[in-house]
């Protein structure tokens, strides 16, 4: 949202009140769209800081001795257990949706692609942080290989773990984050293959965002033009159920 648009929208609200018609000003949706913290934060981050700025990276001596697990620590479904038992040789990452060339990639294929390594801090809304060294494939590389269509706007991540309500975890990000150089699909943490507790065999790292955006246990990534058809339309498991902000920039 540009500053000009914000000003115009506020003037529109004021004008409506002056003419005695305060229907627009009282309309909760309009007020929320203008003034809620999430929109302001999003606007501030987009305008005041370049969204492609890098998240801070740390030196190896800052790595946390233990990178704890949060949320699901083992999907424990029959399908996942079978994949885990055979060392994930039968696991595939599907790249689908608005792409000209859908991909189905094995872990060996992903490991064979160019990597990025980054030591970053993970911040969970539940009040803990940890610094870890991640290694993975830049998301951009896969989206380019799949030849994403021009009308794609978001990337949705579908996970293997079914949550308490029986629905698998899911998340989504926009293309600014998808193409960000630190957005990687990580298969290693602290020079070890990713543990089950941290999302084996593959999880998203989207370093400019809060912990819940970093989808673990990836099965499928999907390019879409809008989020209306994903869950109840707010773009993520916790966004749909607990009102977490979709844009969780830090
Ligand atoms: N599939 C899946 N991804 C998930 C979660 C989850 O429960 N399932 N929890 C999220 C939350 S809230 C956090 S803080 C991080 C935790 O990652 P970690 O277990 O590696 O610490 O994963 C995120 N990604
Ligand atoms: Mo979290």
Please characterize this protein's 3D structure.
- The strands form 2 sheets. The protein has a 5-stranded mixed sheet.
- Helix content is 28%, strand content 25%.
- A hairpin with a 2-residue loop joins strand 7 and strand 8.
- It contains 9 helices and 10 strands.
- It has a single domain, classed as Sulfite Oxidase, Chain A, domain 2 (Alpha-Beta Complex).
- The N terminus is likely disordered.
- It starts with a helix and ends in an 8-residue tail after the last helix.
- The chain is an alpha+beta fold.
- The chain binds the ligand Nc1nc2c(c(=O)[nH]1)N[C@H]1C(S)=C(S)[C@@H](COP(=O)(O)O)O[C@H]1N2 and molybdenum atom.
- The site of molybdenum atom (MO) has 6 residues, from loops.
- Pfam families: Oxidored_molyb (PF00174).
- This is DMSO/TMAO reductase YedYZ molybdopterin-dependent catalytic subunit.
Keywords:
250 residues, alpha+beta, Sulfite Oxidase, Chain A, domain 2, 5-stranded mixed sheet, 5-stranded antiparallel sheet, 9 helices, 10 strands, 28% helix, disordered N terminus, binds the ligand Nc1nc2c(c(=O)[nH]1)N[C@H]1C(S)=C(S)[C@@H](COP(=O)(O)O)O[C@H]1N2, binds molybdenum atom, OxRdtase_Mopterin-bd_dom, DMSO/TMAO reductase YedYZ molybdopterin-dependent catalytic subunit
